[in-house]
Structures are given as structure tokens and as C-alpha cells.
Amino acid sequence: MEFNYARYGLENIKNYGEYVSLIYEEENLVQEFTNVQIQRQSNSLANGLQKLGVKQGHVVAVVLPNGPAVPVAFTAIFKMGAVFLPVIFALTAYEIRYILEDSGANTIITDANLYPKIAEASRDLKSVKNILVKTEEILPPQTHSFGEMVTKNSTDFDIASVRPDDLAVLMYTSGTTGSPKGVMLSHQNIGSNVEGGIPALPTSPEDAMLIPLPLNHIFGLLMVNECNLTGARIVLHKWFEPRLVLEGIMRHKVTQFVGVPTMYIRLMETYDPAIHNIQSIRRLLCAAAPLSTETIHLVESKWGKPLFQGYGLTEASPTVARQRVNRPRKPGSVGPAIDGVEIKIFDDADQELPVGEVGEVCVRGPNVMKGYLHKEAETRLALRNGWLHTGDMGYLDKDGDLFITDRKKDLI
Predict the structure, then answer these.
(1) Average pLDDT over residues 86-91
(2) What is the rounded CA–CA span in Å between residue 282 and residue 355?
(3) What H or E segment, with its residue span, contains residue 7?
């Protein structure tokens, strides 16, 4: 069996043929890409990276805002059996340097606007061998052209054979205390999660999903491959801008919008029924932050569309629970565990609590991380007795629906 996470892109072509799978838009710009184009560009990039000496297991950092280059980059990295390290481009050079140094990143992919910060962050780091820059201008010295990499190499590439437990993604999270932690996610972790979450909120080739979420966040990465599996189209925005989202919904007949609570609040402030026709929407999805019942009521009363909640964390690849289309959506609940995942509520002595009692939300399943890079003590603490201790407080009701009530530890 093939475990490489890149397989979903290849299966997408096999199952649905060639079609426009990605629409990228920003102000005064709309670009369309077929699934075949993305695969060919990723093959060319993978061949180019190999020529630069990138090997299976090497860490490749991607520091880019949303755009077509991001799925091309991570698809190439997965195909090679290398490790995808998404880095939030808004971080400071000091913060990025910590991540590059801790991860031992071999290669960095960035763009011309971010290059000065990346150059500062990577200065004198012996592990960094290559920097690829996406630019239409003159390349900075001692860097490589991302554009040439995706166009001037062979478009044939055989994906690397990987084991289920091989590292696929290294994603840094601030967590609760101390320095950022590198969450190690295997091909099995992220693959099982994308497959386990789809039955809760099934999509099809008739769907178009608008994603303004950063693809350097685990939630955004998950949505891309859910669309690969189901044949749905992706409408990708560089970042969230309410007016552009509303225009994009109308322009592309978007059927699903994926966002976080603050995005929904701003959309409701911008929405004008005399201007914006959102009738193509059939479902709204929200995760990554607590969603108040007031916001749910506001959205559903204004738009008349169901808003489904989910819950997850990077350490769980990320999805733990989702509300489902075939069961009631209870106010305050994030739904039951997705397929293949178990949830239990433990007290401070790691004893299971009965239904309805509040304790720490703990998770077990193939989606649970390998651990934190270079942090054995933190890993042992988080993965006690075979369960991921999330640090979130909540309870389960008699139907197995999860309710999040608080954080066990304060966030910095």
C-alpha cells in the first residue's frame, strides 16, 4: 500500500480526470490551474530539488503567503519523501531563525518580498544549503529561481516510497509555555485524518470550497487534500478580505466556505443582501477557535445556511471532532469524534470521567503526532499512557458529542 501523502493528488486525476481544481484570486487577479498542471509543476520542482541535493528525510521550509506556489511546493516535497516545514510568513526574522535552526532545514522556498527577512533569519546557518525565491525580478545572489524550478525540469517523477510512520510535516506551534515546539506528523497521521474527516461533511465534484485560511496552518493544508479526495474545486485567497470573499462566492458559485469565527463576524458586518447573492452556499464550516452561540445565531439568521463546527489541534493532524450532516447540531458542541479517533475526558490523575463531567480532553488514534522534535520531556507529558493530552477542558454528552469549555493552561 502507498502511504505517501502525495498520493491523493495522483488519485484525484485518476478518479476525476483533468479539471480546473484550483482558482486563485486576489484584487484584480483570477488564475485557474488544472489538477494536471499542479502535478506537473510539482514533478518539475521535485526534480529540481533533487538536483540541488535535497534527499528523502530532508526538511524543506516554505515561507510564502497563500498562492498557487504553496500547493505546488508541498506536493513536490511530499513526493520526494522530504519533510514539509510550513512557516508563518508574518513571524519575525528572530522567530523564523529559531525554527530553521531547531528543524535543521536544508532548503527554504520564499518570495522576493520576504527574502530580506529570510536572508537575515538564515545567515550563517550551516544546515541551510539552498534558498529558492519566487520572483519576476533579478534573483538575489546565491539563490535559485522557483519559477525556473517548476518549468524547466522533467515533469515525470515517481513518488518516493515511504513507511506510514515516516515524517511528513514538521509544524511549529507556540503551545502553552516555553519556546515553540516542532510537531512531528507522519504520512499516516495526516493521511488518516483527511480520510477520517470526510464522511462527517461529505463533498463532491459539484462543490467549490473557498479557502482564505493560510496554507501554512494545518487546517488549510487539510482542506486542500479533502478537495483532492472528493473532486471539489478550491477557490484560494491570498488572505481574508470580506468584500473579496463575498464577490468570490458570487463569481465562482461557491458552495462551501471554510473560516474561523472572526472571519464570520467580519463577513456579517460586510454582507449586504441588496448586493451580495450567497444562494450557491449550501454549508459553512468553522474551526481553529471557539465559536460562540451568538455568532452561530447571527450567521444562520442572516444567511439561512447551516454552520458546522469542528475541533482539532496541530498535534492531532488536526481534526478530532466534527459536527455531522446526519445528526443534530447542538449549541456549544463541536460534534463527535471523526472516524477512527477516540475521545475521553480525564481528571488530573488521568482517570476517565463519566458523561457530562468536565475534565481534560484526551485523544487517541492514527492522527496523533509522533511527538515534539528534540523535546522528549514535553512529548512524554503530552502523550501519557497512549493518549494525547490536549490541554483543553471539556465534556462528552450521552451521544458522544464533545463540548469545549476552557483551556487547562494559559496560552502565552
Answers:
(1) 94
(2) 33
(3) helix 7-16
